[in-house]
Amino acid sequence: MAAKRLVVLVSGSGTNLQALLDAIEAEGPDTYGARVVAVGADRDGIAGLDRARAAGLPTFVCRVPDHADRAGWDAALTEATAEYRPDLVVSAGFMKIVGKAFLARFGGRIVNTHPALLPSFPGAHGVRDALAYGAKVTGCTVHFVDDGVDTGPIIAQRAVEVVEEDTREGAAALHERIKDVERRLLVEVVGRLARDGYRIEGRKVLIP
Ligand code: GAR
To answer: Is residue 47 part of a domain?
Structure first.
């Protein structure tokens, strides 16, 4: 079966994108089941875009301030993404909530990775919020995107322990430990979805 087409969306350092690129390079797209066909971002000048260019991939940038309103931005992001005919869209550290047009076109095919154990600590500060709450265990969640904020059906999760030093040193070290686990989980999940297919039944994601 032909390798599935992935469009990856990023907003920052792009280490999750890099993990996907490395796995695809190491295994080969046919064995892994997917290849990245383009990388999109909501801002310029980020390492995630440099990583894409270094891998020889086409990139596109859709900035909210370049559009009259949020719906205009969402429509532009939808068109830019659709141009690459993705089977799956991977939101890998993409710090924007996609809108109605994007969901209408790609709903059920958008995978997001989040640095907390959803439904706890959704939103832009999942690591900081878990730490501030005093959680002793947090982690990462790979899930499908729906019209809420980090509310879509969960595909897989991994736990990461919060240690004593995290409370003194802040969220950065904890986030790095989570990302270590998260990158491996994302690579594993995207590969399985691509190779084996899946069904979404209500809140359940079934991978044969
Ligand atoms: C990841 O930890 C991802 O879960 C998080 O941003 C990081 C991106 O890292 N996303 C969110 O917080 C979304 N709410 P990366 O740019 O190095 O892949």
So the answer is: yes
